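User: Some background: our group keeps a shared notebook of sequences we're curious about, and every so often someone picks one and asks for a predicted structure to add to the entry. Today it's my turn. The entry only has the sequence so far, pasted here. Could you supply the structure so I can complete it?
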Amino acid sequence: VVGAPVERRWHGPSERAAPVRVRRPQPGGEELLLPWDLGDAGGATWISCEREAYIKPATQCEATQLVARYCAARGIECVPIGPVVYVSGFTREFLAGNTKSSAEMAEDVRQAVDKLCARPGRRLVVVDGVGFPAVGSIVGLSNAELATAAKAPVVLVCPKGVGNAVDSFNLNRVFFEHYGVQVLGALFNRLPVDGYYSLDKCKESIDLYFEQYSPHHKVFGYLPELTEMVAASPAPGAEAAAAKAVGDSNTQDWGARDERRLQSLLDAFAKHANVEQLVEQAIKSHRSGAFRLAEARQSVSRPVSKRKGAAELEAMPLAKRAVLSREEIRLRAMEGGAKSGG
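Assistant: Of course. Here's the predicted structure to add to the notebook entry:
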């Protein structure tokens, strides 16, 4: 999960969209609004829905996700399926020279994120990664390269446990840092509420690790397993069967059940995560220009195809090249017997 804070001034309160409300236990039981922005004068203000945006610039799944439906219901600008889609056969066609080049796809991602950032009043863009860090590396567009195109630091979402959790963080962290991408820290997800591997017990040990061995990375929270979300997860293969085009009516179909699931997630974040710190760290990273290290490092380390004629083909204007469309790639793969994958 990566976030690209936007360096733009806010010119007045929103009359169209209310801030996201998160119930946090207070002495009087009242509701508290979480600060999601460092105000222009340095004080805390609130990021209303119309000032936020979400994008998943590369994906393997075209099914409508809960986040897209939530954004549609709240009036949050959302690009759930970005410019890069790893449909069946995509990687083979890339290697054969029948798709856009790595640099062209990275530029598409940059433009898509920049377009969201350029909206008047926009303060925060959440850029969602795809799979594990190296997904997309075969086409020169791993999550690290996506983060670089988006000019965004990274927050890693890690598994439960202690050893497995920390080892996963370090394995994934090293990949991003190899590319010069700043890793702010981690969120540890789906921890049991009781037992030997309970949230409280794992938190105690993981906190000790970060205090002693990785103090420059932040732990932004430990989220428990939420039965409401588990019950709502589709069965294996169901997502592909239910895949619909973006803009389908079910993106607007937001009901009371979804609201309950959302509130359980917001309550968990309010109780177990430090969202304020996460956003503050992302803003500080962006203002410091940390993303420039990744841009500089990758500009000299991007792999170059040795295939005969590859350089000439890439230098050719896109309009003059035989670049297959998404549907053409999918059809060729199905004719060859593909069922899923890239």
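Suggested note for the entry: The CA atoms of residues 64 and 244 lie 6 Å apart. The first helix runs from residue 66 to 74.
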